Amino acid sequence: MAIDVKFWGVRGSIACPSPDHVVYGGNTRCVEMRIGDHTLIFDAGTGIRNLGKDLIRRKVTEASIYLTHTHWDHINGFPFFVPAYNPAARFHVLAGHLKEQGGVERVFSAQMADPTFPVPLSAMKSKLTFEDFTIGTVLYPADGIAVRTAPLRHPNGATAYRVEHDGKSVCYVTDTEHMPGQPDEVVLDFIRNADLVIYDSTYTDDEFPAKVGWGHSTWQEGVRLCQAANGKRLALFHHDPDHNDAVMAGIELQARSQWSNVFAARDEMVVVIE
User: Fold this and answer.
1) What is the pLDDT of residues 81-94, one digit of tens each?
2) For 132-177, what is each residue's pLDDT tens digit?
3) Which of 21, 127, 172, 258 could disulfide-link 90, Cβ–Cβ 3.0 to 4.6 Å?
4) Phi-psi region for residue 226, left (φ > 0), alpha (ψ -120 to 50) or beta?
């Protein structure tokens, strides 16, 4: 059975709806993976709003939502995720970085509270459950589906995910910062032989020195890691809001000149892993 990957939001830091961000998209992070009847959602940035509309259209009422971390650009679409207000729906939200910090439910509740938001989390009448796991745990959302986890280098912590099914694998590795000249051995091992690697490609190598400590990586490092780990395809992801369509087209062209198995993710792009 295939893993169907759909990108609903590909931007980093802040949504950027503008005429200069039409081709690659302006929504912040949200990726859907479908395996048969099972729906796995990764991050809940502004892209989850459109995903929610699509779930309603498809009459999907159950999914697991895996969070890399809870910085705003990864969760601030959740209050606008309409299916969560449906009493007949069921959603399970998971995070690996908050077990010792009060848990993910506390963060979601605080996000939807006065004075910053008028509608409380309790208004979401779906069967909404929360789980805080220890990074490194292997999760099993359904028979035949494994979701492996690993730590990432990011302020306040973050989690990488590797979805495995029927010999196929997709890795979701964002947000993370590398050390130039020193490949992250954790990431290298985590993505080994993956069919698709979705990687934090916020910056270029030239831009990176001015952004050290911000918790992000470069498209060049993504290429280096995938080539070293025998990754089959690389999706550039978490695009800098300042990288408009013209800049992104140049980055994608340059990346593909280095390795033909690279593409820049776009809002609503679909990739099927068979």
Assistant:
1) 999 999 999 999 99
2) 999 999 999 999 999 999 999 887 889 999 999 999 999 999 988 8
3) 127
4) alpha
Bridge partners (DSSP) listed for residue 139: 147
Q: pLDDT by residue (tens digit) across 46-90? A: 999 999 999 999 999 999 999 999 999 999 999 999 999 999 999
Listed in sequence order, the DSSP H helices in the chain are 47-58, 72-75, 104-111, 185-190, 219-229, 245-258
Three-state DSSP class for residue 251: helix
Classify residue 152 as exposed, middle or buried by CB count within 10 Å of its CB (0-12, 13-18, 19+). Answer: buried
Residue 122, SS3 per DSSP: helix
* Token representation of residue 218: 């470069």
In the chain, the amino acid numbered 188 is: L
Question: What is the residue extent of each domain of the chain?
Answer: 3-273
Cis peptide before 175 (omega within 30 of 0): yes
Between strands 145-152 and 196-200, the pairing is unpaired
For residue 202, give the nearest of 211, 193, 194, 191 by alpha carbon: 211
SS percent in the chain: helix, strand, coil, step 5: 25, 30, 45
Tell me the CATH number for domain 3-273. 3.60.15.10
